[in-house]
Structure formats: structure tokens, C-alpha cells
Write a structure and sequence with these properties.
single chain; 440 residues; alpha+beta; Phosphorylase Kinase, domain 1; Transferase(Phosphotransferase), domain 1; 3 domains; six-stranded mixed sheet; two-stranded antiparallel ribbon; binds adenosine-5'-diphosphate; binds magnesium ion
């Protein structure tokens, strides 16, 4: 766009200058007409008179020139103005068609991202540009997408560990699935992540579109997902009570940013432990924005999400609001407290599926039962008052009626006092206990 501002700006400045010249010239012309035809000149001193007589003649002469110049300039302006406008329009058209051709060469309508980028998240103008990366570079960085580099997998392919030239480690998500849904999720993720910037939201470094292959490149999160930490080989043993509270607080901060600070607001729509990633210091970041929707946009989107995390009103009526994310956050809180999966297979025959929410709700409000269902790794390691408080927050988030659920901002404020100052909260605890927050 800046390309077109320059000639327009110059044109505007020229017209503006021309107008000033015309206005400046008018009083002089008027004075001279009066001076020449009617009133006699005041009697000047000899010296003054010579100078004045000469100057008056000169003025009359030069004013005539000025009038001719003004007439000539205005007629020139009348001819040049439409001509320049025509030229600018043609240049703009040419530029647009060239940009479209570039997009087509890359195989993806990049302009659609750009158009949407301009319409939203105006407060994030300082966000660094997401790079378009070369397929061969990513192939080399991931050892030709080798199995040994796989960090995790999801609905649309695998995520590989990659090493870029400059010793920068990254996570590379390769979408193998060519369905329309996969392409739409890819576009949504690029669209949203290229606009948002927050310490608790994963950073998208770049993307690549190479024929049918679509790739997303993120900052690497060394401690993987919360799901792997809780339900993987370490069985939650790396996560102390304080560390879990920090993860809950970070997650709430990421959601608060999406719900309250993005314009238009964003609903994540797929909040779950496998989409909460942990860096080397267990800072939690929200990831996987493929299903996210901008509030205010068409909410009649296809029913999506993950069983066990989906709010009842969304599942039954397709009603989607920020409170759907609050419900999913409640389920994540239960996972952190109880280290149980949201839907568990019962060991009986035939095996039945048990909903964590249905099973846990009555016990969360019973202070005598609550400690017995807590993950044994953290049981009795926290102040019981804090445990009751977190359980109460979870119960509120999991209310079947969305309007009874708190806003994520309220959840965030209730968690801040439970997290040590050193981990981003306001709780003051003995130094040795904070150090222990990271030690299993
Ligand atoms: N930036 C990352 N750093 C480390 N591991 C990651 C990263 N991104 C994804 N993963 C791993 O890959 C898994 C799937 O990634 P995700 O973005 O959720 O893809 P999907 O859309 O297929 O679910 C995650 O649960 C996590 O284990
Ligand atoms: Mg995922």
C-alpha cells in the first residue's frame, strides 16, 4: 500500500502548494488594481519615490505574469489530475495481480491471511512476521522427517523435532492429511497464530506450503505436553503441587488473553492437556489453534472438540461461547488434581466409558473424600485450604449451565494467590519449598 501513498502524497502536496500560491497572490493583485486605476499614490520621499515607482511598474508586470502562470497551472492541473489518478489506479491493479500470482505459486491464497490479518488484532501490530519457510530446509532440519525425531502426533500428522541452521531447535508439524478440514485447520492456525503474541501462547515461527504438504514451525517446548507429563512414562512425577498450580495459572492467562484482550475475542475450542505445552521451566503455553474461532465470526461452525472436554451445551445445542473454554479448563484442573483421563475405560466386561466429571463432581465438594482421590504423587503435599479452593474453582468451571461458570479472568484471579511469587503468583513460601516445586 505504501507504494501508492507516495505519488498520492506528492500530488496532494503539489495541489496544496498551488492553492497557497493562489491565495497569496490574490491580495497583491487586488492592491495593484486599486493602486493603478483610482487612488493617487501617496507622496513619497525622493529616494522612496524612485524605488516605489520602479517597483510598482515591476509589480504590475510580474502580477500579469503571475495571473498567466496561475491560469496555465490550473489548466495543466485539470489535465494532469485525472491522468495521474488513472496512472495510480493502473499501478495498483498491476500490483494486486502480481501479488495474486505470487500466492498461487506458493499454492495457498496468502492474500486471504493478509486480508484477515488487517481486520483483526490491531493491538498486535508489533508481532514479528511469520516466515514462509523452504521445504528442503525443514526436510534437512528434521532428518528427512525421521521417526526418531517425532515429538508427538495428533489428528493431522506428526510433530518433529528440528534443528535449523543457526542452532535453533524448533517443532515442525507436518500435515499429511489432505482433507478440506485439514487445510482449513492449517489456515486457521496460521491466521490466528500470526497475529497473537503472548508468553502463554505458542509462538509460530513459520510455515511452508509445498504442493500437498503443509507444514507449521513452532518454538520447541522441551517438556512436551501436559498430557505426556501426566499420563506418559513419568506419570506426573515431574509435576509438584506448585508446578501444577503454575501450569493452571499460565493456562488461565493464555485463555484470558484470547477471551479478553484479542479483538475480536478468540475461543480456542480444543483446550485439553495435549494442547498445553511446557517449556524447559514448565512455563505452559496454549497450542493447536486449528479449531479456534474468532468470536463474532460465524459461530455455526462444525461441531468439533475432544470427548471429555466438550461443554454440554456445545455438545447438545452447538452453543459456542468463551464459557466452552472455561468448561474445558475445569476438566484440565481435574486432570492436574487427580491425574485421571477425562474419559476412562472401565476394566469391567463389557468395558464402559466413565466420564471423569460425572465421577469426580460429588467427591470434589466432600472435604472428607477429596484428599483420597487426589493424585498420590502430590497427595498431602499442599495446604488443604488451597486444595479445597482449587476443587471449588473446578466445580464452578464445570457447571452444566454456562452462565453459572466464572469468566476466565475470575478463575485467574483465584489462582494467583496459590502460586509462589517465583513462579508467577503472589504466594510467599520458604525458598527451599519453591526450589522443591521443580523437584519431584
Ligand atoms: N512446539 C512443540 N514443542 C514440543 N512438542 C510439541 C510442539 N507442538 C506439538 N508438540 C507435540 O505434538 C503433539 C501434537 O501437536 P498438536 O499441535 O496438538 O497437533 P494436532 O493438531 O495434530 O493435535 C502435542 O500434543 C505435543 O506432544
Ligand atoms: Mg493437538
Amino acid at each position: 500500500m505504501s507504494i501508492f501513498i507516495n505519488p498520492l502524497f506528492i500530488l496532494f502536496i503539489s495541489i496544496f502548494n498551488f492553492q497557497i500560491a493562489t491565495i497569496d497572490a490574490r491580495p497583491n493583485m487586488l492592491n495593484n488594481i486599486i493602486h493603478v486605476s483610482s487612488s493617487p499614490a501617496p507622496v513619497p520621499s525622493m529616494a522612496d519615490s524612485g524605488i516605489q515607482a520602479g517597483s510598482s511598474n515591476h509589480k504590475t508586470h510580474s502580477n500579469k505574469k503571475l495571473v498567466i502562470a496561475v491560469i496555465a497551472a490550473s489548466s495543466l492541473g485539470v489535465i494532469l489530475l485525472p491522468l495521474m489518478c488513472l496512472l495510480i489506479c493502473r499501478r495498483e491493479k498491476l500490483f494486486r495481480s502480481r501479488a495474486n500470482r505470487l500466492d498461487q505459486l506458493r499454492g495457498l491464497p496468502l492474500s486471504s491471511f493478509i486480508t484477515r490479518t488487517n481486520s483483526a488484532f490491531k493491538q498486535n501490530s508489533q508481532k514479528q512476521l511469520v516466515s514462509v519457510m523452504d521445504y528442503s530446509l525443514l526436510k534437512a532440519a528434521t532428518n528427512n522427517f525421521h521417526e526418531s525425531e517425532i515429538l508427538g502426533s495428533g489428528g493431522f500428522g506428526c510433530v518433529y523435532k528440528g534443528r535449523l541452521d543457526d542452532n535453533l531447535f524448533v517443532a515442525v508439524k507436518k500435515l499429511d492429511n489432505e482433507s478440506r478440514d485439514a487445510l482449513k485447520e492449517f489456515q486457521t492456525e496460521v491466521d490466528i497464530l500470526s497475529k497473537v503474541q503472548h508468553p502463554n501462547i505458542i509462538t509460530l515461527l513459520g510455515y511452508c506450503v509445498d504442493d500437498e504438504t503443509k507444514i507449521l514451525v513452532y518454538e520447541l517446548m522441551q517438556n512436551g505436553s501436559l498430557d505426556t507429563q501426566l499420563h506418559g512414562p513419568s506419570c506426573g512425577s515431574n509435576l509438584t503441587w506448585h508446578c501444577r498450580m503454575k501450569i493452571a495459572l499460565d493456562t488461565a492467562r493464555g485463555l484470558e488473553y484470547l477471551h479478553e484482550h484479542c479483538k475480536p475475542p478468540v475461543i480456542h475450542r480444543d483446550l485439553k492437556s495435549s494442547n498445553i505445552l511446557l517449556d524447559s521451566r514448565y512455563n505452559a503455553k496454549l497450542a493447536d489453534f486449528g479449531l479456534a474461532v474468532m468470536d463474532g465470526a460465524n459461530k455455526n461452525v462444525k461441531l468439533s472438540g475432544t470427548l471429555g472436554y466438550v461443554a454440554p451445551e456445545y455438545l447438545l445445542d452447538g452453543k459456542l461461547t468463551d464459557k466452552s473454554d472455561v468448561y474445558a479448563f475445569g476438566v484440565v484442573l481435574l486432570e492436574l488434581l487427580l491425574k485421571r483421563r477425562p474419559v476412562e475405560k472401565q476394566k469391567q466386561t463389557p468395558p464402559e466409558r466413565q466420564s471423569l466429571v460425572t465421577w469426580a463432581m460429588p467427591q470434589l465438594t466432600d472435604r472428607s473424600k477429596l484428599p483420597s482421590i487426589i493424585d498420590p504423587v502430590i497427595r498431602d503435599t499442599m495446604d488443604p485450604k488451597h486444595l479445597y479452593q482449587v476443587a471449588a474453582v473446578a466445580v464452578l468451571c464445570l457447571q452444566p449451565e454456562p452462565s453459572y461458570r466464572p469468566l476466565i479472568t475470575d478463575v485467574l484471579h483465584s489462582l494467583v494467590p496459590l502460586v509462589p511469587v517465583e513462579l508467577g503468583g503472589t504466594l510467599r513460601v520458604a525458598e527451599n519449598r519453591v526450589a522443591a516445586a521443580f523437584e519431584p
